[in-house]
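PROTOCOL LOG
Step 1. Enter all chains and additional molecules of the complex.
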Amino acid sequence: MRDQEPARARVLDAAEALFYGRGVQSVGMDEIRNASQVSLKRLYQLFPSKGELVEAYLRRRDIRWREALARQVEAEEDPGARILAVFDWLHGWFAAPDFRGCGFINSFGELGATTPAVAEAARAHKEAFRAYLGRLVADAGRPAALAGQVALLAEGAMTAAAIRGSAEPAREAREAARVLLEASAADRRAVAPG
Amino acid sequence: MRDQEPARARVLDAAEALFYGRGVQSVGMDEIRNASQVSLKRLYQLFPSKGELVEAYLRRRDIRWREALARQVEAEEDPGARILAVFDWLHGWFAAPDFRGCGFINSFGELGATTPAVAEAARAHKEAFRAYLGRLVADAGRPAALAGQVALLAEGAMTAAAIRGSAEPAREAREAARVLLEASAADRRAVAPG
DNA sequence: CCCACCTGAGAACTGTCGTTCTCATACGGT
DNA sequence: ACCGTATGAGAACGACAGTTCTCAGGTGGG
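Step 2. Run joint prediction.
Step 3. Record the structure below.
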């Protein structure tokens, strides 16, 4: 029992690097064993099947991803600037050498049709992201519909950045979001002046 | 040799339905054999390996997808309306019962890291889509940067629609595109009046 | 009519992978 | 020091999938 947490963390670290970097089905348990230096026996004690390891990988990645985003966004004071800060954070993520798109979109495409737990994890992750944007948009006093539009820009930027192998889509998306933000301010001025 | 084309078409039809619907790695050659009613021997004469079948699937899907889009878009007369017609077409696609996101995004997530041909097919498809939007935007006399923003909205809508299992993102994206289009018209009026 | 060739159906081969098992060994409590 | 338990390393097992092979049957030309 002792030392279980380090082993568990090492397994999840290895699983995340491999599953995210190459796709779930391209990675065997042996490879996770080698990368984590945790014996197969222990690995299967910690995660009774590959499927459960995949779920744990997605759960942890969801939490960490959203925490990292929130950390950078909330360094910004102005509510409007916080919305745009989302795209600055995305730019940094896209520029990371191991960036390969959104792990949830990738897993969904690979396994969503055959593994309901993966489809559900992707759905929950995207819904949480959207809800977070909804809070940022509400704090900035913008119409709720803006959140969905900003979410689409962010998700489009993730896939475009992955496929084109460039961080540039974050800039494009930021500029589009800025225009939408301005337009929503204009609406607001027109509809509810003051 | 005789009857080769029907067999080839049947194989590609089966491959497309299965690869798109469930992901490439979840589908075996036996299943394609059964679905297409083409013997394994003939199948391997037509496509010497699964990899080449996957590439043929992506090539044909790219062409057909962009043709179907262009067909609906070009039914619209007004250059500005054509840009928005892209999202109406997306809405129809998303609402199809077998819709499961963008086949290229899905394949990229599944195989992009391990199969360069798949990564390249996805890149080429997205670039062609982006170039098409570039033409629509140019025809409407809008700034070129609008094309990239519209592309991000479209790609974001594809993944959001797949993961949420809803066609609604097409509507959200259309509305965002409409605002960007209007804003670009305002810019144009401000920068180059008349 | 006969033979060379091609085809279809599916068995067989090969490698891989998820999972379990073996077994020698190290450890902890008495 | 002794024994039961748990561990690690890796072999083994079973299923599966990509690819090739076998073989019986059909077809077209001489």
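Step 4. Note key features.
Chain A touches chain B through 49 residues (CB under 8 Å).
The CA atoms of residues 39 and 45 of chain A lie 10 Å apart.
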